[in-house]
Amino acid sequence: MFDSLRDKLQSVQEGISASFRGLAVGEIPQTVRIPEKHAVNLNAGGEILQHYQKKWNELHAIAEENAKKAQDVDDYIISLDADVAKKLTNIESFNAQLLRMPQVVDGVHSLIRNIGTLQNSIDKVEKLLIQLEDIVETQHLQEEQLEKRFELAMYREKKLADLDSFRSNLSVEHAVKLSQHEKRLSAEQKEKQATYAEAFKNDLEHYKKFGSIPHEKTIQSNSAEAPCLSLEEVVLDDNQDSEALDELLKDSELE
């Protein structure tokens, strides 16, 4: 539109320029014939020509300014058209998105349901993990119990072995001490028997010589040397003592 206006202004400008050139000084129209007898004033119409030329220059400047403004307006219209086209494209895209909004809403609802299902699955997995931790802890405790029982059994076996060894050692020690005690008792008994045999022999000799037994002297002399014994504790193993006793009994029967 502005291009056609600019073309029209340019054609008008060219027409005015051509008419002014036709009126310039020194130009003689072909259709006008000047009589040879009369002189022609060449400066006639100069002011009018100058006036129109000035107006033409003003119109030319205005036309150029209008052409520049028209170019600016054209550029602005092109930019505005591109902006409008871009906004139109955005609006069409927005309308398309609005048309797809029900699908988006359905997708959001489906996503919410999936999130709920996932939350339930997570809760189940957490419960199963807690149960698994309890099972693992129970298994660990059972393993520790088995290990402690095994250690206790090994400790019991060790202590039983130590007890058997201690019993064996104690039995051996007891047997040794018992043997030593029996030997000591046997030695003491033999010593006592020897003492009483000697005392009996002395009493028998005294009886043979004097016909009586020194009971008090024998008891007093023996009480300092040996402890008192009962008759059941006296054991006569020597054959000589037996023969002396038999002779004593025979002598008492003869009397």
From TrEMBL:
Top-level taxon of the source organism: Eukaryota
One CC-aspect GO term: cytoplasm
Family, as annotated: Belongs to the dysbindin family.
The name this protein goes by in its record: Dysbindin
Originating species: Laodelphax striatellus (Small brown planthopper)
Upper lineage: Eukaryota, Metazoa, Ecdysozoa, Arthropoda, Hexapoda
